[in-house]
Amino acid sequence: MYNSKIIGLGHYVPDNVVTNDDLSKVMDTNDAWIQERTGIKERRHVVSGDGDTTTTMGVKAAKIAIERAGIDKDDIDFIVFATLSPDYYFPGPGVLVQRDLGIKTVGALDVRNQCSGFVYAISVADQYIKTGMYKNILVIGSELHSHGLDMTTRGRGVSVIFGDGAGAAILSREEDNSKGILSTHLHSEGQHAEELSLIAPGMGKRWVNDIIADNDPNDESYYPYMNGQFVFKNAVVRFSEVIIEGLEKNKLKSTDIDLLVPHQANLRISQFIQKKFQLTDDQVFNNIMKYGNTTAASIPIALTEAWEEGKVKDGDLVVLAAFGSGFTWGSVIIRW
Question: Is 20 a catalytic residue?
C-alpha cells in the first residue's frame, strides 16, 4: 500500500473585506463584543454580481494548487469537493469544477460534513490513494456563507462569525510509508444535529411549493442556528480526543507536534486546545482573525498560508483537526 502526500496547496478569498465596525452599522454589535467572543477582526464577503461562487472560488484555489504541485490538470484522477454552500441544490460543485477546469471525465465526489468537511475529504482521498485506485486527487474546501446569513441583530450570534473563501490541495502517491498522511480519524454524534444546523430548505421539512407559498419573513429556519455555548463545550472535548487518538495511533506525543492547524471556528477554542497540549504560539496556526470561520475552507486556507509563511517544512509533524455541525469531528496526522 501507498501513503498519500500533499504536493500542492492554494487558496482564494474575495477582495471585499468586512470589518467588525462594518457589521456594527447593520446590526447591534461592536468590535469589542465580537473580538472578545470569537477573536475575529474581519472576514471576506463575496459582493453580489462580482462573479464569485462556491465553485469559482474553489477553481481559483485549485489552479494555484495544481501549479504548485507541478502537475497538469489532466494528471488529476479524481476530485473531492467539501462544502455546505453549493451553487445548486444539485448537482454538487465537484462536477462543476471538473467542467470549469476542463479536466477529463474523472470521478467527482461532494462531501457535506460542514466544518469537518475538508478533514473528511482528505480522509476519503487518502484511502483512494492508499489502495492504489488513484494517483493524484484534487481536494477542495470552499464556502460562500455571506449570501445566506441573517445580517440583522436577530442573527448576529452567527452572522458575525462566518466568511467566504476557498482552499485546495493536491494529494499524490508516496511510496515511503514514513512520510505523507500517516492516519485519519473520523467521528460523528448525530444526537446533537439540531444544535448547529440550517433546517430549511429541506425536503423533510416541507414541499417546495409550500415554501414558496409561505414566504414567511419570520421563519428563522432559513438561517443557520447555533447553540454557541453547547457547541463550544463539545468542541473542546472532541478536539482533544481526536488529536490524542491520532497521536496514539502513530505512537507519538503532543511534544512531537511541529504544527497544529485547527479548524478556524473560534479563536477561544484554538487557545483552549493550545493550552491543554502545552503548545507554543509557533506550534499552532490561526488566521480566523482575518477570515472568520470559512467552514470547509478554513483548514486548507490556513494550511496554505502556514506553508507560504515557511511554517511547514519537510519532516515536520503536522496535525489537522476539526469539529462542527453534525456533530462531526476528525483529525489528520501528517509527516510532511
Answer: no
